[in-house]
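yo, Glyoxalase/bleomycin resistance protein/dioxygenase is done. seq:
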Amino acid sequence: MKHMGVKVAQRFVAVDDHDRALTFYRDILGFEVRQDHTFEGLRWVALGSPGQPDADIVLQSLVVYPETSPADQQALAELLAKGLLPGLVFRTEDCDATFEHLRARGATVAQEPTDQPWGVRDCAFRDPAGNALRFAQLRRRRKDTGDGGDSGDPPSSQPSASSGRNG
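structure:
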């Protein structure tokens, strides 16, 4: 099938406090603010990496649909606080340097740099809302291991159970 030129443009991230999240993504991760608007009682904040002008992260209120029941709202809030909602994976050229930089800026560590069997060295942090953020450095494939490739895509964006997911 011919590629249709489709690319990811935006990824929504649930947050419980837009101002705290904005401070984290802008001041800790170094993202630029591309949009910050309030309309109909909702806030739309889009940020992105300066080197990736066509891909945004949109900070979204945890519950934006009026038909969401109070029980579902509570369940979502609990999942978010535990870091169990889908997270984000970022590419980095140097996982260890990225880890030290983010830790020094006060980001909450979920996993120290680790060589993964799917061809990356990665680390994980939590944003102020509890979202899992992984930072992955591609490694060269080791032909002698037959480990299946170097796509760098983890089986899940969640930190492993031993990395303090609930803390």
